[in-house]
Amino acid sequence: MNTHEQTTKNNNVQTIEDIIRDINNGDLESAGNKVSEYITYIDHSMNTTFHGRDEWLQLLRIRRGAYSDVQIGNFEFIDAGDTVVITSRIHGTNDGQIGPFSPGGKRAEFPVCEIWRFDDDGVPVSGEIFYDTLTILSQLGHIEFPTGG
């Protein structure tokens, strides 16, 4: 691997770390300034694709509204050049609306996997997120896991 490739890889991971720091600090606009204006972001658990920076920021605002103290932690990166995979844990107190569910004041903590892709300038142009909605809703007391057989 040449020096340029190594620098690009390190910069892409750094960009995601910066986005995470911004989200954890509640500075969603700063996070938004780090992604492409034309980003495509797929939330597989919601079965929804967000097109463009404004829609991606709206998703972040909805999540922040559901968990005002949301934090992303315990992250690990797999650096693959123009692609970065991150595993992490998200935790926060449900003090806002989640879809049809009213806030319950309970805490949730759940694993997440994200895949980010970058253009030649190191700007995130697409992302995908995977997480288990059933676990989240169970932790918040909105549903119960079936028992027995």
Structure description:
Helix content is 32%, strand content 32%. By secondary structure, it is an alpha+beta fold. It has a single domain, classed as Roll (Nuclear Transport Factor 2, Chain: A). A six-stranded mixed sheet has the order 2-1-6-5-4-3, sandwiched between helices. Mean pLDDT is 92; it is low at 1-9.
**Name given to the CATH architecture:** Roll
C-alpha end-to-end distance? 53 Å
Widest sheet: strand order?
A: 2-1-6-5-4-3
Query: What shape does the CA trace take?
Result: globular
What is the CATH topology assignment?
Nuclear Transport Factor 2, Chain: A
Low-confidence stretches: 1-9
Class by helix and strand content?
alpha+beta
Largest sheet: 6 strands, mixed
Helix fraction bin? 25-40%
Please write the string of helix (H) and strand (E) elements. Answer: HHEEHEEEEH
How many beta-strand runs? 6
* Count of discrete alpha- or pi-helical segments spanning 4 or more residues: 4
CA-based gyration radius: 16 Å
- Overall pLDDT level: 92
CATH class, anyone?
Answer: Alpha Beta
Total discrete domains: 1
Percentage beta strand: 25-35%
Strand-helix topology:
Blueprint: H1 3-24, H2 28-32, E1 40-43, E2 48-51, H3 53-66, E3 71-80, E4 83-93, E5 107-118, E6 124-130, H4 133-139
Parallel strand pairs: 1-6
Antiparallel strand pairs: 1-2, 3-4, 4-5, 5-6
